[in-house]
Specification:
The structure is a single chain. This protein has 198 residues and is of the alpha+beta class. Helices cover 38% and strands 23% of the residues. A hairpin with a 2-residue loop joins strand 2 and strand 3. The longest helix is centred in the last third of the chain and has 15 residues. The structure holds coenzyme A. The site of coenzyme A has 19 residues, from strand 4, helix 7 and helix 8.
Length: 198
């Protein structure tokens, strides 16, 4: 399999949504969980590609997108910008769910209506990232390559530290981040924050 890593182009957006869905259940396929297949991508992938494309990189296998790494150099500024430029249009067409709706779609709609926030423990780690590779691409050293590329892009921009969030059920990703030198910043109900000083 021939892999290549390249900057995001707008035509990649549908692939980003697809990859986000196929890896969105603690690393596994979230397709069966969602009636609206785009909700995960609306929150976890697309806004980064659209608002900060210079920090979005796409991995291809035989020319087809099979993974990505994306994020922001400045979480506080990104969150404020998403509040102005990303969430309003989504909120206008995706109503809040009923209070007794316990579906995975409802959980995501609540996130979209709440907007992004920063956990106080990660305030010293201004950048954050998301990385997702399709199953055929996993375990071949590509994840490490994407992280190294992303960290180099952050260093070039003078960013002092980066954080990320991971589901506590995603033991594979946790092992991956620890192998690559991220340290656990905090463990919370259902998820952990990891970080690295640059
Ligand atoms: C997690 C993920 C990004 C890792 O990327 P990858 O390409 O599979 O990992 P790599 O092959 O680059 O592995 C890098 C190192 O991490 C280790 N590692 C990776 N996955 C691991 C796992 N499941 N268990 C233990 N170690 C693991 C590897 O052994 C390797 O160590 P080495 O370089 O010393 O041999 C990728 O598997 C993925 O996208 N998974 C699904 C989506 C996901 O969970 N995203 C993260 C959400 S927070």
């Amino acid at each position: 399999m021939v892999f290549a890593l390249r900057p995001f182009v707008p035509a990649d957006l549908p692939a980003l949504y697809r990859i986000c869905l196929l890896t969105g259940a603690a690393g596994g396929d979230a397709t069966p969980l969602h009636r609206d297949p785009d909700l995960l991508g609306h929150y976890y992938a697309a806004p980064y590609a659209v608002l900060e494309p210079e920090l979005c990189f796409v991995l291809t296998a035989e020319g087809e997108p099979c993974g990505y790494i994306l994020g922001t150099r400045d979480t506080a500024a990104f969150n404020a910008r998403a509040e102005r430029e990303w969430f309003p249009a989504l909120r206008a067409r995706l109503p809040r769910p009923a209070e007794n709706d316990t579906s995975a779609d409802a959980d995501l709609l609540r996130l979209i209506h709440a907007g992004y926030s920063i956990h106080p423990d990660v305030r010293d780690y201004p950048a954050h990232l998301h990385i997702d590779l399709l199953p055929v691409t996993q375990g071949k050293g590509q994840g490490r390559k994407l992280i190294e590329h992303f960290l180099a892009a952050l260093r070039e921009r003078g960013v002092p530290a980066v954080h990320l969030g991971v589901s506590e059920r995603n033991t594979g990703a946790i092992a991956f981040y620890e192998k690559l030198g991220f340290h656990c910043i905090g463990a919370y109900p259902g998820w952990r924050a990891y970080g690295m000083r640059l």
